[in-house]
Amino acid sequence: MRVIETITKRLSSYLEDKRILEVACGDSEFSINALKYAKQILATDISLERAKRRNLIDIVENIEFKEMNATKLELENDSFDVSVCYNALGHLEGILNSVISEMSRVTTQNGYLIFIATWKMDQKVLLGIENIISKHGNLTISENIDNKSYNILIIKKE
């Protein structure tokens, strides 16, 4: 079983029949694997070139793709049950506070923000997220999964 399949299976209770936003989706590996569980997925990135190269746009049912800046999501408040950032933390490090604020804004109350890192550069950034979360009064760390192949930080929006 591939690591992404293991991760989505481990997160299935958070994803099952939920509306999911993936921020900085890249080639949408997470979204494609989360389809087994999710009700609906919106995969966003500043550029969808990687998803286009995989010929995913307009052919994958239940995933909508939109180009969007993660610090200014063009989405309604409380639109998603779960917001996910998979293997993009290293690219977002300098703007992470704004990204977390936006992910929180579009996530419903009692929903979750999930940060997943399988790459070393992302795992290093993941360690610093706890400091950012402490500045947001409505966010609390729900679970911190440390595995030899991946790290997952699950944050609840209260």
TrEMBL record:
Keywords: Methyltransferase, Transferase, Ubiquinone. The keyword Protein transport does not apply. Residues 21-115 form the Methyltransferase type domain. One of its GO terms (molecular function) is demethylmenaquinone methyltransferase activity. Its EC number is 2.1.1.163. It is an enzyme of class 2 (transferase). The keyword Ribosomal protein does not apply. InterPro entries: Methyltransf_11, SAM-dependent_MTases_sf. One of its GO terms (biological process) is methylation. This is Ubiquinone/menaquinone biosynthesis C-methyltransferase UbiE.
